[in-house]
Amino acid sequence: MKKKLIAGNWKMNGSLSANVSLLQAVLDGSQGMNCQAAVCVPAAYLAQVQSMLSGQSLIALGSQDVSAQEVGAYTGEISAGMLKDFAVRYVIVGHSERRQHHAESNATVADKAQRALSAGITPIVCVGETLADREAGLTEEVVKRQLAAVIQVNGHCISEIVVAYEPVWAIGTGRTASPDQAQEVHAVLRSQLKAATSHSDRISILYGGSMNAANAAQLLAQTDIDGGLIGGAALKAADFLAIMAAGSTTA
Ligand code: PGA
User: Fold this and answer.
1) Closest Cα to atom 2, ligand 1: which residue?
2) pLDDT tens digits, residue range 77-88?
């Protein structure tokens, strides 16, 4: 059985001093926990967090985005090779905030996943429907289309990705998908991955969207929920630790 993966997405939050207090408390409180964990930090803090995480293996370093290009005249972009220089293990691709504010298409997200994989970094590929999609009965169609683009471009490497199901209407809203709602979509994604690779059992499917200390255990207990991608609650050490603890008991 895979260990649950609890990944924090700090988004555009933090400072040199705030990062020290948050991460030190998480490191101190997570000793002996039986899950996998990561913190996906702003690129500006990769070096700082890399050094804070050195010498332990429970919490891995993650980034929040990667360029779809390899190298060259792309002002402001950060390549997968650069992330590798900081021993980044995971990178979030296709987060709904990037799809929405930076017009990232399914094709761009697939290319970003490919760049990460070729640098030996695990992409956390985010998929999820908007409220309008859900109300129109399009949830399954939307998430499958988003994932299909990544499967198509990445072929046999697909077993090396992590998927995060993040209903857009649940992100940062305090409105969580119910365990049943989340499980239903996770099962759809699981069968899509099964059809794509004989190694689909290696792929973790995370739930994200207002996961918190109070609801994590119930969500993580669902058959096809292999972990969480945590935004707001990852900024409070006690909450992130409670979610890690829930992930350590629900194997
Ligand atoms: P949230 O964010 O936990 O604050 O809803 C999750 C995410 O956007 O990854």
Assistant:
1) 231
2) 999 999 999 999
Whether the CB of 7 sits within 6 Å of ligand 1: no
Mutate to test the pocket of ligand 1, among 210, 212, 219, 220 (most ligand atoms within 8 A of CB): 210
Per-residue pLDDT of 175-202, as tens digits, reads: 889 999 999 999 999 999 999 999 999 9
Q: What is the pTM of this model?
A: 0.97
Is 211 close to ligand 1, i.e. is its CB under 6 Å away? yes
Instruction: Identify whether 95 is a catalytic site residue.
Output: yes
pLDDT at 1: 76
**Stretch 222-229: mean pLDDT, rounded?**
98
| CATH class of the structural domain 5-249 | alpha beta
Cross-strand bridge partners of residue 9: 40
From 74, 77, 5, select the one nearest 40 (Cα to Cα): 5
**Which of 188, 187, 164, 166 minimizes the C-alpha distance to 177?**
166
Given 77, 95, 129, 160, the catalytic residue:
95
The predicted-structure confidence for 84-105, as pLDDT tens digits, reads as follows 999 999 999 999 999 999 999 9
Distances (CA, A) of 10 to 3, 5, 22, 68, 152: 22, 16, 11, 22, 30
CA distance 150 to 128: 14
104 C-alpha to center of ligand 1: Å? 18
210 CB less than 6 Å from ligand 1?
A: yes
